């Protein structure tokens, strides 16, 4: 048995151990990766994150209401900017490490981080992921949805979009208090590979709440009992990126910003993302 030499979980000196302390220390003593105490959100922080999540969901609702053939991805960005201005919140993607727009719009073979463009017109049968993160008073909500433009596409794309959503739901079902990140990834990978789909490995879900990206990394593939222990009070995203073909990806060489991620074989990709709070009984959705 390998014991962590540097402890991450610190108990409060002079205070009796809580049930949370006992359970986390049990796994830490077995050599497992455990969270730090400051990754556990206070009730006040959870309420702030919950408000940001509701705003983020509302923004995606506004996008869903305007989705139709003939609009541009810039129209989507304009809708998100207008929503944020009207609701006194901030689009977190805007100017994040050089990202030039307020939202990510990823069409067909674009896995994620697609940049909205005035001349990029959505056509009937396209599948597009819209990924939004909102900052409200220093709290963050993060989610993405898939849209089938015109409501109908090829059977192959329809199945991909459906299975990607099932992967998110199955991952959420696997997320139990005192489970491990690998339990989530194992469940997602097992379901996706039934359809011979690739699960992207170069990108992952993440902690979120007081900043846009926090610990832990939520891998969407892997083995049970691996990765970080997940305990009540942690907030994180699950956002599997499911490719029709290979799991491998590359950065679009024509993207001057170096953001757009493309499937390695340029087959379609689909992704759904929610922000979750881990509770004593399972996960609560904070943004969808």
TrEMBL record:
Gene3D superfamilies: Creatinase/methionine aminopeptidase superfamily. One of its GO terms (biological process) is proteolysis. Binds 2 divalent metal cations per subunit. Has a high-affinity and a low affinity metal-binding site. The true nature of the physiological cofactor is under debate. The enzyme is active with cobalt, zinc, manganese or divalent iron ions. Most likely, methionine aminopeptidases function as mononuclear Fe(2+)-metalloproteases under physiological conditions, and the catalytically relevant metal-binding site has been assigned to the histidine-containing high-affinity site. Its EC number is 3.4.11.18. Its cofactor is Co(2+); Zn(2+); Mn(2+); Fe(2+). A divalent metal cation 1 binds at residues 131, 142, 273. It holds the Pfam family Peptidase_M24. It is an enzyme of class 3 (hydrolase). Keywords: Aminopeptidase, Hydrolase, Metal-binding, Protease. InterPro entries: Creatinase/aminopeptidase-like, Pept_M24, Pept_M24_MAP, Pept_M24A_MAP1. Substrate binds at residues 113, 213. Monomer. Belongs to the peptidase M24A family. Methionine aminopeptidase type 1 subfamily. This is Methionine aminopeptidase. It comes from Hallella bergensis DSM 17361. The gene is map.
């Amino acid at each position: 048995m390998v014991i962590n030499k540097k402890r991450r979980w610190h108990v409060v000196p002079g205070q009796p151990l809580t049930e949370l302390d006992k359970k986390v220390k049990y796994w830490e003593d077995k050599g497992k990766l455990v969270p730090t105490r400051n990754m556990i959100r206070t009730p006040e922080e959870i309420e702030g994150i919950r408000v940001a999540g509701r705003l983020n969901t509302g923004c995606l609702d506004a996008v869903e209401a305007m989705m139709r053939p003939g609009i541009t991805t810039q129209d989507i960005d304009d809708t998100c900017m207008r929503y944020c201005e009207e609701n006194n919140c901030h689009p977190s993607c805007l100017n994040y490490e050089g990202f030039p727009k307020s939202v990510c719009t990823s069409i067909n073979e674009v896995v994620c981080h697609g940049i909205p463009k005035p001349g990029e017109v959505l056509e009937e049968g396209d599948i597009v992921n819209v990924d939004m993160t909102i900052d409200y008073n220093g709290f963050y909500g993060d989610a993405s949805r898939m849209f089938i433009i015109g409501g109908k596409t090829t059977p192959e794309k329809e199945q991909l979009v459906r299975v990607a959503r099932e992967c998110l739901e199955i991952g959420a079902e696997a997320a139990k208090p005192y489970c491990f990140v690998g339990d989530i990834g194992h469940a997602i990978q097992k379901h996706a590979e039934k359809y011979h789909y690739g699960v992207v490995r170069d990108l992952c879900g993440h902690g979120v709440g007081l900043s846009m990206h926090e610990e832990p990394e939520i891998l969407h593939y892997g083995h049970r009992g691996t990765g970080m222990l997940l305990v009540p009070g942690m907030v994180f995203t699950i956002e599997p990126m499911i490719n029709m073909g290979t799991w491998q990806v590359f950065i679009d060489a024509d993207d001057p910003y170096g953001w757009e991620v493309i499937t390695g074989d340029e087959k379609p990709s689909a992704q759904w993302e929610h922000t979750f709070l881990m509770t004593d009984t399972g996960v609560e959705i904070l943004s969808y």
